[in-house]
Amino acid sequence: MTFYAPAEPAASRQASEWEADRPGDAALMRKLAAVPHAIRLNEPEVRAKVENTITAAEQAGGVPVFLINYMPGSDCQQVGAAGMAAYQEWLKGIAGQIGQAKAVVILEPASLVKLPGTKDCDLEGSPAQRYQDLRQAVQTLKGNPATAVYLDGSQDLWPGTAVMAERLIGAGIDRADGFFVNTAGYQRTQKAVAYGKALSACIGLQLSTGKKGCPAAATVDPATMPHFVVDTSRNGRGSWAPAKHYADPQTWCNPPGRGVGDRPTTETGEELADAYLWIARAGSSSGRCRRGTDGEKDPERGVVSPEAGLWWGDLALERAKNAVPPLR
């Protein structure tokens, strides 16, 4: 399977700005822009965007990857029934525009990490309601059998394999195509795959036994183990371990010296790993990284970082230069 590479205007614009004086850097930006990456759907009206993407992907002979990140309450605020009903109608519009075309949907990153009713979110909230909302979302999107839908699997140690397995079962992993791991994360592919396999086995065990927990010595029926995909957009150099001491190192926040990772592919060499994908944007800032200091500047970089989600040319170039394997 070949994934669709949508336009990356920010990287292309950056390349044009550097073309005359920095041709080598410009060339790297063009290579970065050419890599297939997820199309983010997080605005009230996205039907035209989805329709145009499906048309362009079919013409290019690739499969688009959509990142849906619009669920009310994802910021751990209370949500009324009307807001969630509107969200489900919004999803129906997306499903209608995808139609019978092939597509991959990454459904609501962090929706099972920042779970209502847990310490990572609103303790007064309801996990059961979040599970129901996700199950309904999966059902809507899977109305087209050619749409592959993956649920939030977080990453190793957050919140823990057995707990994550319980949450995925609650959210209807048996109705989805699998789960995704390492979204916007820096864990190397090998480590992320190992976590994905452990989580898959844990889910299979809990589905088979109806019990919580994941004893290491337990035997798991492979038929009960869900598949997964891995975000490799930022993990080429692995996680960052700061040499300096910070009150809050924020190792996830624009860590220096990182690089883009494996290119998107379905040829993973792992039976349970359906694909490596670029779910996050390689050149987007994580926000203001103060690392526990009082100033506005990132003490590691000596500059004020752009706000979260904004393109940062210098960060993109750093990750392109540090790509593993190199961008070609």
UniProtKB/TrEMBL annotation:
Family matches, as InterPro entries: Beta_cellobiohydrolase, Beta_cellobiohydrolase_sf
Top-rank EC class of the record's enzyme: hydrolase
Molecular function terms from GO: hydrolase activity, hydrolyzing O-glycosyl compounds
Residues bound to substrate: 158, 252
Sequence ranges of Basic and acidic residues compositional bias: 291-301
Region (Disordered): 285-307
Entry's EC annotation: 3.2.1.-
GO biological process, one term: cellulose catabolic process
Keywords, in A-Z order: Carbohydrate metabolism, Cellulose degradation, Glycosidase, Hydrolase, Polysaccharide degradation
UniProt record similarity statement: Belongs to the glycosyl hydrolase family 6.
Protein name: Glucanase
Species per Swiss-Prot/TrEMBL record: Nonomuraea zeae
